[in-house]
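Quick log. Single chain, no ligands specified.
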Amino acid sequence: MGSNSTSGRLMIQAYAATEVGGKLEPLEYDPGPLGSETVEIDVDYCGICHSDLSMLHNEWGITQYPFVPGHEVVGKVAAVGTAVKTLSVGQTVGLGWFSQSCMMCEWCLSGNHNLCPQAEQTIVGRHGGFANKVRAHEVWAIPLPDGIDPVKAGPLFCGGITVFNPIVQLGLQPTDSVGVIGIGGLGHMALKFLQAWGCDVTAFSSSAAKTDEAMAMGANHVVNSRDPEALKAIANSLDVIISTASADLDWGTYLAALRPKGRLHFVGVAPSPVSSHVFPLIAGQKSISGSPLGSPATTQKMLDFAQRHSIEPVIETYPFSQINEAMEHLHSGKPRYRIVLTPD
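-> predicted structure:
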């Protein structure tokens, strides 16, 4: 994708849908002047996340068209605003779900930028990374450490940080026993992180075919989530269960699998409200919680941890020119385990 000049600026070449669930087609747009604290990134690679599909189909009722997906970007800084202090042209960075936050509220000032009420999301109300360039506030463009493969790094900036953030937020210990529900795009990275963290890891999977893969990626145990007896057999054994699934399950059975003070923690969006009898929560002092993606500091910590332990997602690649085929492959639910768009 090339660029033409207008008003002294380079036009950005992107792929956009003009209607709900529409095909992604070339779009050229003028990004406007570069903000003083903004960086422009030349996109080298961009992962595809299920959130891109949800937004494409306006499942959350917040999509604006034309819609440019893409929020697992890896590329090089091409231009910096006049007040940018932390990045320089030529640095390799990643950009995830968030592209800006206010930097002034109690959440930003306490290092919880991802909880900022005014946080800007990379593909909400603005154009994302299925393009030759994308912009973000300098704080949200995270430098990629040496030793991390940039081709595989994109999914770390959404799926990866989504499952790494609870490890930090919940203060997980290497002696903890942790379950992971759903061994897909998020779950397979959770297994890798938790295994390297030192935890005893149980994978819950509805697919018996994934047992060997789950063990290879870090699970110490694999439980068939469709077998009620198998679930009952692990009652009172786990400190934390992280659910990456986008399905309605028998949450009471999973709460029963927790030890006292255990926590059922959601990072995947179950379609229906999650309910529980209160007595098991009181009797075992158990809790139900959730978390979004992480702050810039936690994202940097995740990247450093991934580099130190040689953790990377399992990916399939498609050239940008086959972007619609890649989206359809994700829609089919067949990827093992994340898709990354690469230059033609």
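The domain at 5-158+294-342 is CATH 3.90.180.10 (Quinone Oxidoreductase; Chain A, domain 1).
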